[in-house]
Amino acid sequence: MNKFVITGIPRSGTTVFARTLSKIDNIHVANDQHDFYEPFKIMSNSLDLNPLPRLKELEDNCRSNYFGFKSFPGDLLDLTKLILNDRYKTFAVIRKDIWKSIFSHAIARTKLFRDNDNTAFKGSSKLYTETLSASSISELPPPLLRMFQDSFFARIKHAYEFETQYENTDVIYFEDLIKPNASFECVNNYFNKEVIFNLDYDDSADFTSYYNNFSPELLSSMCKHFIQTVNIPNDCPQYIKDSVYKYYIGDR
Question: In whole angstroms, how far apart are CA 214 and each of 95, 181, 196, 229?
């Protein structure tokens, strides 16, 4: 049995990547009740201190030639050991524009907190429903600023690691995945058939959807603040550097 794991950066197309594969004969993608294909998600209701027995059970019950699931760094399973010890093939789905994945994640999080009436984040949810006139990060609700900063660091860190440190891993960029009839040689070679991805996703409205309430001054202020917290190594791929400095205004 061939084993694979889908990982990458959240809000970058990992779910639709898994959903497409799950519809193909002889490919089984382990699912959960939320249709996210993340049986070892850290935010699940039941957390196993040792998830390996459950993983073996899922593998043993698989009757397809290909078995896989989705998992992110920080989930219950150690991806690096999974790749090295169990020889899992890895597909990492990444948005080159890391800021879009940050804002997409923030929108989803604030909507979740708003819907659940979480008072700590109630103020931050207003940023997507009201016009924001702030020009400095000092005017942002502290919980939202912290969420953005943590999300910023995690995303550039994981993108860097997938590109430079993960073995047996092919990186697929969201910007290529959303093209009509998208097909990838690494995927086709692994599954020994052509796999076509048609996301029918139009990214032309992304800026309005994600940044409508954030002025250029505020985005620049956030960018400068976040960059001060990160040391970028020399071997960092250029697209990560470009994305990190996307909203930076002034001399670097």
Answer: 21, 34, 36, 21
State the Cα torsion 225-131-10-178 to the nearest 10°.
Answer: -120
- Residue 81 sits in the same domain as residue 115: no
pLDDT digit string, tens, across residues 113-157: 455 554 444 444 455 444 455 677 887 778 778 888 899 999 999
Tokens (6 digits) for 18: 């898994």
Give pLDDT tens digits for 74-120.
999 999 989 888 889 999 999 999 999 988 887 776 655 455 554 44
DSSP string of 37-99, one letter each residue? --TT-TTSSS--SS-HHHHHHHHHH--SSEEEEE--TTSSS-HHHHHHHS--EEEEEE-SSHH
Q: Which of 54, 52, 92, 56 is nearest to 71 (CA)?
A: 92
Q: What range does the domain containing 213 cover?
A: 98-151+205-244
- Residues ≥6 apart with Cβ < 8 Å to 227: 244, 245, 248
- Between the CA of residue 166 and those of 5, 158, 172, what are the distances in Å? 12, 10, 14
8 A C-beta contact, residue 174 and residue 12:
yes
First CA to last CA distance, the chain:
51
User: Both 135 and 181 in a single domain?
Assistant: no
Question: What span, in angstroms and rounded, lies between the C-alpha atoms of 97 and 86?
Answer: 32
